[in-house]
């Protein structure tokens, strides 16, 4: 099992799923809007560093929530993920699922609507605690089979963040109860917009039988933003990302 980035635009049937150049343009636009919209933020000082999902602090933070607020950026984010999922997975046997985050539920719902996908709806923990009526943490589509693959959608993957893993375990258990079989037999993929240190972030998921797909790495986003960063921002990023490529494929030194 290998984790993979956006390469090889051949769909499940073996036919080219879409024009590779068209997808690349959308992918490039996604990278640009992350920077131009201000969704990529660099802390101004030590006290302003951002706390990540895994509890660590970083000089840089990617907030996809900013992209969801404007139609011109929301459409790019949604389109690039829809294109990737259509290219990589059989639409007849793909079931989407969200994680417990501020962006994933809305983003997953948009992809499911545009792509006509079935969806597992996972309530965020805070919402579930206040839920009335049926008190369901998770809702399954009416039709599920053992051939279906669960595709979890999130914005960013961070090392030691267990959000995707916990949702995968929850969904696997409920799907296995519905279709029969063991939870580990349910095929699960995680698709994210940006992977932060994928060589560190992916192995724990892979050990649990979850294949990870990403559109961009954080190093690539930093590389694209490098020419427009202030000198002080570059200095702070050098402290945290000594091997990240800069514009022109050079290394930060």
How would you describe this structure to a colleague?
The structure is a single chain. The strands form three sheets. This protein has a six-stranded mixed β-sheet with strand order 7-6-5-8-9-10, sandwiched between helices. It has a two-stranded antiparallel ribbon with strand order 1-4. It is built from nine helices and ten strands. It has helices at 20-36, 65-68, 71-88, 104-115, 125-129, 163-179, 198-207, 218-225, 231-240; strands at 40-42, 50-51, 57-58, 60-62, 94-98, 118-122, 138-139, 149-157, 187-195, 210-217. It is an alpha/beta fold. Helix 1 (20-36) packs antiparallel against helix 3, helix 1 (20-36) crosses helix 8 and helix 3 (71-88) packs across helix 4 (104-115).
In short:
With 253 residues, the protein is an alpha/beta fold. The protein has 9 helices and 10 strands. The strands form 3 sheets. It has a 6-stranded mixed beta sheet with strand order 7-6-5-8-9-10, with helices on both faces.
Overall morphology: globular
**Strand content bin:** 15-25%
Largest sheet, spatial ordering of strands: 7-6-5-8-9-10
Alpha-carbon Rg, integer: 18 Å
Helix content: 25-40%
Task: Classify the secondary structure makeup into a structural class.
Answer: alpha/beta
Distance between the termini: 34 Å
Continuous helix count: 9
H/E series, N to C?
HEEEEHHEHEHEEHEHEHH
Number of strands: 10
Q: Would you tell me the overall average pLDDT?
A: 85
For the biggest sheet, the summary is: 6 strands, mixed
List low-pLDDT spans: 6-16, 247-253
């Amino acid at each position: 099992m290998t984790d993979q980035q956006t390469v090889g635009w051949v769909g499940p049937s073996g036919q080219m799923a879409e024009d590779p150049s068209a997808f690349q343009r959308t992918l490039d636009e996604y990278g640009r809007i992350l920077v131009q919209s201000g969704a990529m933020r660099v802390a101004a000082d030590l006290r302003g560093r951002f706390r990540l999902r895994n509890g660590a602090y970083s000089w840089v933070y990617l907030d996809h929530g900013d992209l969801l607020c404007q139609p011109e950026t929301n459409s790019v984010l949604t389109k690039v993920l829809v294109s990737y999922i259509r290219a990589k997975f059989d639409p007849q046997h793909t079931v989407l699922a969200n994680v417990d985050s501020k962006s994933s539920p809305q983003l997953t719902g948009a992809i499911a609507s545009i792509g006509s996908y079935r969806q597992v709806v996972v309530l965020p923990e805070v919402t579930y605690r206040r839920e009335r009526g049926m008190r369901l943490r998770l809702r399954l589509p009416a039709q599920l089979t053992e051939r279906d693959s669960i595709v979890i959608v999130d914005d960013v993957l961070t090392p030691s963040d267990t959000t995707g893993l916990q949702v995968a375990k929850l969904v696997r258990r409920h799907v296995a109860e519905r279709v029969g079989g063991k939870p580990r037999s349910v095929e699960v993929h995680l698709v994210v917009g940006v992977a932060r240190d994928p060589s560190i972030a992916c192995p724990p998921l892979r050990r649990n039988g979850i294949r990870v797909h990403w559109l961009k790495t954080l190093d690539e986003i930093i590389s694209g933003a490098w020419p427009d960063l202030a000198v002080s921002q570059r200095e702070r990023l050098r402290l945290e990302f000594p091997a990240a490529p800069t514009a022109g494929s050079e290394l930060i030194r």
